[in-house]
Specification:
about 325 residues, alpha/beta, seven-stranded parallel beta sheet, two-stranded parallel sheet, about 40% helix
Length: about 325
C-alpha cells in the first residue's frame, strides 16, 4: 500500500514508518521539523529511514491548508497514519496557539485531504490525557471523557469529535489511538526518560512531581508501532450493536473507532526511576514537588478492545525497555556532543 505518515520525523513516526517499510509498503513521510526540541534529533531519525528505497520525505506543515491540499491532490494514499501534533502537556500552558494550529487546524486539514482524496482509512494519534479528571481505573474507551485538564488533552479529545463527524458525514473510516506514556530509544528530550537520564548522569537533581506518587502505563515504542500498524490494517467499521439511547463513546453507527494502546501494567514513578538508576548504574538526586498543573496522578489502560479486534499484545517488560533506552541514550548523547 501507499501510506502517508505525518510526523514521520517524530518519535513514534520513526518506528511506525520503519515497520511499514520493512513489510514492503510505500511510505511518504511528512514533518515540519519545528524547533520545539532540537531538530537534529528529528533529522537523525530520518537518517534511519533513508536506506529504504520505498520511503520519500517531504518537509510540510499540516497546518498549511494549501500544502496539504496539494499533497493529497498529487498523491493517492491508501491509508493515512496521522501522528503530527504539538506534543507535551506542560508546554500547552505557555504556548496554547501552537496546539490550536497544529492539533486542531492541522487535523482539520488532514481530514479534508482524506475526504477529497478517497482515503480508505485514517488512523490518528489521540492520547491517554483525554481521560483528564476521570479516576475510575483502568481507563476504558467506553467511559465518557468530557473533563480534560490541559489544552493538549482538549485538542486530542477534539480530534476524536472531528473524526467522528467526518466518519458520519462522509463515510470516512477513522480510528483514534489513545497512546499511554510511550518510551524507548529515539524518545523526545522533554519526556521523563531523557530528563531523568541526563540529570542523573550529570549529577543534577531530578524533579519528581506529586512527591513520587504518580503511576504511568509505560509502553515501549516498538509495541506502540506494532499496535498502530495492526489498527491501520483493520479498517474501522460501524458498530452494528450501537444503541443511540445508550451511546458507546468508543464506537458509532459510523465507521469510527477509538482504542486505548498501552501496556496495561501501571508502574509507580519511583519504580520507574529506580529502573533507570539501575540501567545507568548511578543513583538519582531527587527533588520532590507537588502535582504540576495539567498532569494527572495515574494512567492505566484497558486494552481489551484492541486485543480483541487486532490481536494487540504488549510484550516488552519495563526492565528490558529501559535497558534498551539507556544503551541508546548513552550512545546518542556521546556521538552528538
Amino acid at each position: 500500500m501507499k501510506i502517508l505518515v505525518t510526523g514521520a520525523a517524530g518519535f513514534i513516526g520513526l518506528y511506525v514508518a520503519r515497520l511499514l517499510l520493512e513489510r514492503g509498503d510505500e511510505v511518504v513521510g511528512i514533518d515540519n521539523l519545528n524547533d520545539y526540541y532540537d531538530p537534529r534529533l528529528k533529522l537523525a531519525r530520518l537518517e534511519c529511514l533513508k536506506p529504504y528505497a520505498n520511503f520519500r520525505f517531504l518537509r510540510l506543515d499540516v497546518a498549511d491548508a494549501g500544502a496539504v491540499g496539494r499533497l493529497f491532490a498529487s498523491e493517492r494514499f491508501s491509508r493515512i497514519i496521522h501522528l503530527a501534533a504539538q506534543a507535551g502537556v506542560r508546554y500547552s500552558l505557555s504556548n496554547p496557539q501552537a496546539y490550536i494550529q497544529s492539533n486542531l487546524v492541522g487535523f482539520g486539514n488532514i481530514l479534508e485531504g482524506c475526504r477529497h482524496g478517497g482515503a480508505e482509512h485514517l488512523v490518528y494519534a489521540s492520547s491517554s490525557s483525554v481521560y483528564g479528571a476521570n479516576t475510575r481505573m483502568p481507563f476504558s474507551v467506553h467511559d465518557e471523557v468530557n473533563h480534560p485538564v490541559s489544552l493538549y488533552a482538549a485538542t486530542k479529545k477534539s480530534n476524536e469529535l472531528m473524526a467522528h463527524s467526518y466518519s458520519h458525514l462522509f463515510g470516512l473510516p477513522t480510528t483514534g489511538l489513545r497512546y499511554f506514556t510511550v518510551y524507548g530509544p529515539w524518545g523526545r528530550p522533554d519526556m521523563s526518560p531523557w530528563l531523568f537520564s541526563s540529570a542523573i548522569l550529570a549529577g543534577r537533581p531530578i524533579d519528581v512531581f506529586n512527591h513520587g506518587k504518580m503511576q504511568r502505563d509505560f509502553t515501549f515504542v516498538e509495541d506502540i508501532a506494532e499496535g498502530t500498524v495492526r489498527a491501520m490494517d483493520r479498517v474501522a467499521e460501524p458498530n452494528p450493536a450501537f444503541d443511540s439511547d445508550r451511546p458507546d463513546p468508543g464506537s458509532s453507527r459510523a465507521p469510527y473507532r477509538v482504542y486505548n494502546i498501552g501496556n496495561q501494567q501501571p508502574v509507580k514513578l519511583m519504580t520507574f526511576i529506580e529502573t533507570i538508576e539501575k540501567a545507568l548504574g548511578q543513583a538519582a538526586i531527587k527533588n520532590f514537588l507537588p502535582l504540576q498543573a495539567g498532569d494527572v496522578p495515574a494512567t492505566y489502560a484497558d486494552v481489551d478492545d484492541l486485543r480483541r479486534d487486532v490481536g494487540f499484545e504488549p510484550k516488552t517488560p519495563l526492565v528490558e525497555g529501559i535497558a534498551r533506552w539507556a544503551e541508546w541514550f548513552r550512545e546518542y548523547t556521546r556521538n552528538s556532543s
